[in-house]
Design a protein that fits this description.
With 475 residues, the protein is mostly beta strands. 5% of the residues lie in helices and 43% in strands. The longest helix is centred in the N-terminal third of the chain and has 6 residues. Bound molecules: CU-O-CU linkage and copper (II) ion (2 copies).
């Protein structure tokens, strides 16, 4: 948190004015990316990971005139990294020291519904709950955790509650490649330097702050590994901001998505769009460069006409390639993983995202709907059967992009359709969050393995909060 304060020292507020209140005493000299804090395992039993996450407010002296209040897990931003192995049993106690109910949702992980922090299962201030689940073989991937209480998810996440969760494979084909973890999260401060409440625009287009932090630091500099090749895991933990990621001067290789490695690397990319909630794994090669690279979030227009809340371009991170030594690049295997096609679906579902203008007391508003309805925690919207593969057709009839997310499983994209043109997905990959452009239809194959209630929703957290969510009951 000290390094967050330091990294904010030369920043501007939204209107372009510098933050004059910053305390120069907080300016630190270190520019290297501070290691993310790790959640320590309190268990001595093999294959059991046991720990406590305390959700609590923490005051960080960002500004001279008074501290900024963040909500954190165990006082760290981002929340401490959970780093476990396939096959491990995870037992985590959440202690709620917030003033609101909360829960922890294990985004993307195959955990039973009773352990997944559903909105119905939030705990009151002062309470504790223990989540317990075993990570199956084949679940290696890049996940995250965040609150999911009814009505407070967006607020709690934007105040700082979110952390990374890595499940490692017993046999990782990239085991020798140095890894870099980049959790990208949005920070919006008001003129007092406090975390800003949402305005009506935020509730409509999604909240975007003045800063996109990398591991809770503002525009840090990282020193590229001397070996010349790194594996980057990147999280889009923003409430609503899409990241069209570019590292000008370098080509990127996509090697993994939300739920783990691809079968083969997809090389030669100049950019990748990461929607809110999604994660990717990339291979970044220094090649011959020895300069200062910039990781950029370029403009991404989130609407059909290109005029719905286009994201501002931002440089997020400086990558210092100057210390790369020559001739020691670790080689990459051509085959990374085997992904089994989920096979022929035996049932179908249709999910339609739409929006509707409203007028209450002369005030314009917007409703965000799933199959024509707003979320109701007492209503079941869809029913599926345990272990039955289904084809879901997800249709975006709204004027803006929405990232669709389904709890409890990893799905496979079959095709994407836009303006009547159907494109079959050309490679297999595991996803739990997939973007739908305005007017787009995406077909996915999915299967649930436990009975119980699962949520599916737009991962623009403000849209989820105002009702763009449904409930699937698995029987
Ligand atoms: Cu990231 Cu309903 O979740
Ligand atoms: Cu989730
Ligand atoms: Cu949305």
């Amino acid at each position: 948190l000290k390094s967050l304060a330091a990294s904010m020292s030369h920043t501007m507020l939204a209107d372009g004015s510098p933050m004059p209140l910053l305390d120069p005493a907080l300016l630190a000299s270190g520019t290297d990316q501070g290691g993310m804090s790790m959640l320590a395992n309190e268990s001595s039993q093999p294959r059991l990971f046991k720990a406590t996450l305390t959700a609590k407010a923490v005051r960080v002296p960002l500004l001279k005139d008074g501290p900024t209040e963040f909500w954190t897990y165990n006082g760290s931003l981002p929340g401490p990294l959970i780093d476990v192995m396939e096959g491990d049993t995870v037992e985590i106690t959440l202690h709620n020291q917030l003033s609101q109910p909360t829960s922890i949702h294990w985004h993307g992980l195959p955990v039973p519904p009773s352990q997944d922090g559903n909105p119905q299962q939030a705990i009151a201030p002062g309470q504790k709950i223990t989540y317990r689940f075993t990570l199956p073989e084949g679940s290696a991937g890049t996940y995250w955790y965040h609150p999911h209480p009814h009505e407070f998810t967006a607020e709690q996440a934007s105040r700082g509650l979110a952390g990374g969760f890595i499940v490692r494979a017993k046999q990782d084909p990239l085991a020798g490649v140095p890894e870099r973890l980049l959790i990208l999260s949005d920070l919006k401060l008001d003129h007092m330097g406090q975390i800003a409440p949402n305005n009506s625009d935020d509730w409509m287009n999604g909240r975007e702050g003045q800063f996109v932090l990398t591991n809770a630091q503002n525009k840090p500099t990282v020193h590229f590994d001397a070996g010349g090749r790194e594996r980057w895991r990147i999280w889009n933990a923003n409430s609503a901001r899409y990241l069209r990621l570019q590292l000008p001067g370098s080509q990127l290789a996509l090697i993994g998505t939300d739920g783990g490695l691809l079968e083969h690397p997809i090389t030669g990319l100049t950019e990748h769009v990461l929607a809110p909630g999604q994660r990717i794994e990339l291979i970044v090669d220094a090649g011959k460069r020895r300069d200062q690279g910039k990781l950029i979030a370029a403009v991404y227009a989130r609407g059909k006409m290109g005029d719905v809340a286009p994201d501002k371009p931002l440089d997020i991170l400086t990558v210092d390639f100057s210390r790369v030594a020559t001739g020691q690049v670790v080689s990459l295997p051509a085959r990374l993983a085997t992904i089994k096609d989920l096979g022929r679906p035996v049932a179908q579902k249709r999910v339609v995202f739409s929006e509707k203008m409203t007028m209450t007391n002369g005030q314009h508003g917007m409703q965000f709907l799933v199959n024509g309805k707003e979320y109701d925690m007492h209503r079941i919207d869809l029913t599926s059967r345990v272990d039955e593969v289904e084809l879901w057709e997800i249709v975006n009839q709204s004027d803006m992009d929405h990232p669709f997310h389904l709890h409890g499983t990893q799905f496979q994209v079959q095709s994407r359709e836009m303006d009547g043109v159907v494109k079959t997905e050309s490679y297999l990959a595991w996803h739990d969050t997939i973007n739908l452009k305005s007017g787009e239809t995406v077909r996915i194959k999915t299967v649930q393995h436990w009975p119980g209630i699962r949520m599916f929703h737009c991962h623009i957290l403000e849209h989820e909060a105002v009702g763009m969510m449904g409930q699937l009951e698995v029987v």
